[in-house]
């Protein structure tokens, strides 16, 4: 799922125009960029075994040099996730958003908007 999700984000022209290829799992690149994290993954089980549907909670940290840049990246991530198509992606919902700040390697401030997604993935 992780590779396909990243590839879907990279393929979105609006997001690519802002961050290029700086979208990765667990890593923050130069800004603007998107860091992806799997917060939870719990495959659905029945008494007959797994059904092949897994709900994920994904956090997308959208970084920018300034607040407005981080927000533009976050809106582009939301737009990209809204285009995820069946049958692989059964549902994608934004469950939360928050603003924060971070620092780069030289201790310069960075703006961060974090998005929480609930994604139902058909394996």
Descriptive tags:
3 helices, 123 residues, alpha+beta, 7 strands, two-stranded antiparallel ribbon, single chain
Can you characterise this structure?
Helices cover 27% and strands 46% of the residues. By secondary structure, it is an alpha+beta fold. A 5-stranded mixed sheet has the order 1-2-5-7-6. The chain has a two-stranded antiparallel sheet with strand order 3-4. α2 packs antiparallel against α3.
In short:
The protein is an alpha+beta fold. The chain is 27% helix and 46% strand.
Structural class: alpha+beta
Which H/E pattern describes the elements? HHEEEEEHEE
Distance between the termini: 8 Å
* Tally of helical segments: 3
Helical residue percent band: 25-40%
Percent of residues in beta strands: over 45%
User: How are the strands of the largest sheet arranged?
Assistant: 1-2-5-7-6
| Largest sheet features | 5 strands, mixed
General shape:
elongated
**Radius of gyration, taken over Cα atoms and rounded to an integer in Å:** 15 Å
Low-confidence stretches: none
Provide the residue-averaged pLDDT.
92
């Amino acid at each position: 799922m992780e590779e396909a999700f990243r590839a879907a984000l990279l393929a979105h022209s609006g997001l690519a125009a802002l961050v290029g290829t700086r979208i990765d799992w667990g890593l923050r690149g130069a800004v603007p960029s998107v860091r992806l994290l799997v917060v939870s993954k719990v495959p659905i089980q029945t008494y007959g075994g797994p059904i092949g549907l897994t709900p994920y909670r994904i956090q997308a940290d959208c970084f920018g040099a300034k607040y407005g840049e981080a927000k533009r990246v976050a809106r582009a991530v939301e737009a990209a996730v809204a285009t995820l198509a069946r049958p692989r992606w059964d549902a994608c919902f934004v469950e939360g958003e928050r603003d924060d700040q971070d620092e780069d390697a030289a201790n310069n401030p960075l703006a961060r908007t974090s998005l929480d997604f609930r994604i139902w993935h058909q394996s």
